[in-house]
Amino acid sequence: TRGQERLSMAESEGLMPQDLINAKPVAAAVKEFFGSSQLSQFMDQNNPLSEITHKRRVSALGPGGLTRERAGFEVRDVHPTHYGRVCPIETPEGPNIGLINSLAAYARTNQYGFLESPYRVVKEGLVTDEIVFLSAIEEADHVIAQASAAMNDKQELIDELVAVRHLNEFTVKAPADVTLMDVSPKQVVSVAASLIPFLEHDDANRALMGSNMQRQAVPTLRADKPLVGTGMERNVARDSGVCVVARRGGVIDSVDASRIVV
Fold first, then answer.
1. The pLDDT value given to residue 139
2. What pLDDT does 14 receive?
């Protein structure tokens, strides 16, 4: 190859990396991805939530993926393995329904690119503080209790039969059979869906529309705090990176176009 020719010809003293490697194809590939790829998008900056949601989007479209026309019903449908990894609520309503999803609140990718969800380890009915991240394949054999399962002060499961997930089915088992437990009730849904108060009492279609419409809210002239929240608002504001965060606590003395005095 040309690289080997260059190596054999060049004197080893003054050799630089750019003498061996042709950077043009690498630069072209990077420029092509950021310039014209379907998955390189202009960030949605309507409000802090729209930013953070756009960054947490999971798509089945794009290079190496599906096309809207070819995707059937099965690909778009909610699957048991979505639990704790991909939100079953937040998805577009149009032709992209089920093809564009949102990452669940606690999900992360592992070194192989699979989505993992966190669980608390349960030993003989005792819920420990040890956390394990498992992919859908790894969790299939486990008996996983709900985050809302009743416990006493010693963190022991107290119900005779506990509602669990096992082999991708919902069933009930004795506390001694439980091996894992959900970390939080909101680990099933995305950040946007977890901002809806009393989400569990909402119709799924309305929750979907609510999750999508929160991203379209525009800043108000005189902002007023809501009467009811879920506790996720702080995380969204902080993690979206649009807010100024004080290093230590204090009282805000004055606010100006150029400075905030604490």
1. 93
2. 77
The residue type of 116 is E
Which pLDDT does position 15 carry in this prediction?
82
SS3 sequence, 99-164?
CEEEEECCCEECCCCCEEEEEEEEECCEEEEEEEEEEHHHHCCCCEECCCCCECCCCEECCCCEEE
Q: In Å, what is the CA distance from 106 to each residue of 39, 87, 89, 103? A: 23, 11, 15, 8
Encoded tokens for 238: 């902080």
49 within 8 A of 215, measured Cβ to Cβ: yes
What residues in the chain have per-residue pLDDT under 50? none
Q: Mind listing the domains of the chain with CATH numbers?
A: 2-36 (no CATH), 37-106+187-262 (3.90.1100.10), 115-183 (2.30.150.10)
- Say which residues have a Cβ less than 8 Å from residue 176's Cβ, sequence separation at least 6: 124, 125
